[in-house]
């Protein structure tokens, strides 16, 4: 637990720096581009991140899971790099198709389509989950945090340059793309210094040969990661498609400010997963403790959003974004729910139940996306936010039920045959 708190501390420090820098670029982008312009920017970024997220395998989990043995992370890293290459190829094909058909379903003008494709390709080439996994495998969260700090720093600096030199959507998208390249290079450099990377180990066959359940785990974690992306980026794309660029821009700002807790949930998940893999006997207790602590933190954060959210929203983005205050509060509640569920989801994945985690996440996410059109017609951005909240609540309830089932199975196995399970 001591090491876990140290790791979470490093990650939270990085998130804090990221949050401050994000406020810089968010204020500059929203006030420079306005509601419609920022909506176009939000749609381009969401499309690039959606393509990358759905094509990208969660290779950091593979490195941690299969690189922790006595043989070291060599083969696991080679397998992860091979999957990254596959992601780039698959993602580029998907990006070309999506951008070519964008005007059929997204409110993007012709002159922004080339920069949209460029951003998608750069995002794919900047996939960095493998070096992140190498650093987490060795519990080098401090070095990972320092490398990841490059992204918000470059993003904020790029936003300032765009504000001065190219004050339009293209300028801010280029600033974002530059930050993606910079952080990927930083993480690969730091990871290579920590753990030498043997390119001769790159293969899609070695790990599956030694671990029969490898591909099942790969596809389950990939689909779970894709669902997490769909819950955020695809939601923004659909909001833009159904409600226009102004609604997409406002929803993006409300989401970024209100769902800061989701980022915190991901931070907790990333820190606790390696610990759960190593501490198998205490994994369940550790996850439950983290969930209880997260419940208190989430409640406090929702109160902050409720009482200070409008001031923050209008002070950062401008008065024209003030109408998205209640959407932000609802999304903050959804973020608190995700914060509670983060350790429970990590527990399932670490126990080899990634497919269960995927199913539990998939059903509510698909339901929210299906009902999004009705939700927007009912109450605009607030309706979309309620769809996100409902999806998060159902998923976390499912994680909790699955955890109880794991506990029941464990007690049944450990209890003598002549006694009933507790």
UniProtKB/TrEMBL annotation:
<keyword id="KW-1003">Cell membrane</keyword>
<feature type="transmembrane region" description="Helical">
    <location>
        <begin position="38"/>
        <end position="57"/>
    </location>
</feature>
<feature type="transmembrane region" description="Helical">
    <location>
        <begin position="324"/>
        <end position="344"/>
    </location>
</feature>
<feature type="transmembrane region" description="Helical">
    <location>
        <begin position="384"/>
        <end position="402"/>
    </location>
</feature>
<dbReference type="GO" id="GO:0005886">
    <property type="term" value="C:plasma membrane"/>
</dbReference>
<dbReference type="InterPro" id="IPR002797">
    <property type="entry name" value="Polysacc_synth"/>
</dbReference>
<keyword id="KW-1133">Transmembrane helix</keyword>
<keyword id="KW-0472">Membrane</keyword>
<keyword id="KW-0812">Transmembrane</keyword>
<protein>
    <submittedName>
        <fullName>Membrane protein involved in the export of O-antigen and teichoic acid</fullName>
    </submittedName>
</protein>
<feature type="transmembrane region" description="Helical">
    <location>
        <begin position="290"/>
        <end position="312"/>
    </location>
</feature>
<feature type="transmembrane region" description="Helical">
    <location>
        <begin position="356"/>
        <end position="378"/>
    </location>
</feature>
<dbReference type="InterPro" id="IPR050833">
    <property type="entry name" value="Poly_Biosynth_Transport"/>
</dbReference>
<dbReference type="Pfam" id="PF01943">
    <property type="entry name" value="Polysacc_synt"/>
</dbReference>
<feature type="transmembrane region" description="Helical">
    <location>
        <begin position="112"/>
        <end position="137"/>
    </location>
</feature>
<feature type="transmembrane region" description="Helical">
    <location>
        <begin position="78"/>
        <end position="106"/>
    </location>
</feature>
<feature type="transmembrane region" description="Helical">
    <location>
        <begin position="7"/>
        <end position="26"/>
    </location>
</feature>
């Amino acid at each position: 637990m001591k090491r876990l708190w140290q790791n979470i501390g490093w990650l939270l420090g990085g998130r804090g720096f990221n949050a401050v820098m994000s406020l810089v670029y968010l204020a500059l982008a929203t006030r420079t581009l306005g509601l419609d312009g920022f909506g176009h920017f939000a749609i381009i970024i969401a499309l690039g991140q959606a393509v990358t997220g759905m094509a990208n395998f969660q290779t950091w989990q593979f490195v941690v899971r299969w690189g922790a043995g006595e043989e070291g992370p060599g083969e696991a890293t080679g397998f992860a790099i091979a999957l990254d290459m596959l992601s780039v190829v698959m993602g580029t094909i998907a990006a070309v198709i999506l951008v070519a058909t964008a005007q059929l379903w997204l409110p993007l003008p012709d002159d922004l389509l080339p920069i949209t494709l460029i951003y998608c390709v750069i995002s794919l080439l900047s996939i960095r989950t493998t070096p992140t996994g190498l650093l987490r495998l060795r519990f080098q969260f401090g070095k990972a945090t320092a490398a990841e700090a490059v992204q918000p720093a470059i993003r904020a600096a790029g936003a300032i340059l765009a504000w001065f030199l190219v004050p339009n959507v293209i300028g801010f998208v280029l600033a974002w793309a530059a930050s993606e390249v910079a952080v990927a290079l930083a993480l690969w450099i730091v990871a290579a210094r920590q753990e030498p990377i043997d390119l001769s180990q790159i293969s899609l066959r070695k790990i599956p040969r030694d671990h029969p359940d490898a591909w099942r785990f790969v596809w389950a974690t990939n689909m779970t990661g894709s669902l997490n992306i769909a819950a955020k980026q695809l939601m923004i794309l659909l909001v833009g498609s159904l409600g226009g660029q102004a609604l997409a821009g406002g929803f993006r700002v409300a989401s970024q400010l209100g769902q800061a807790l989701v980022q915190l949930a991901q931070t907790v998940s990333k820190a606790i997963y390696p610990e759960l893999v190593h501490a198998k006997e205490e994994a369940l207790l550790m996850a439950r403790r983290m969930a209880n602590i997260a419940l208190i933190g989430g409640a406090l954060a929702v109160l902050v959003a409720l009482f200070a959210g409008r001031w923050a929203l209008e002070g950062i983005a401008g008065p024209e974004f003030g109408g998205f205050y209640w959407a932000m509060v609802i999304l903050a509640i959804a973020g608190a729910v995700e914060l509670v569920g983060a350790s429970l989801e990590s527990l399932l994945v670490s126990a080899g139940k990634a497919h269960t985690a995927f199913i539990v996440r998939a059903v509510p996410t698909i339901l929210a996306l299906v009902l999004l059109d009705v939700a927007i017609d009912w109450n605009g951005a607030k309706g979309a936010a309620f769809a996100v909240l409902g999806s998060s609540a159902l998923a976390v309830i499912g994680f909790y039920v699955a955890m109880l089932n794991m506990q029941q199975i464990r007690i049944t196995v450990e209890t003598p045959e002549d006694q009933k399970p507790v």
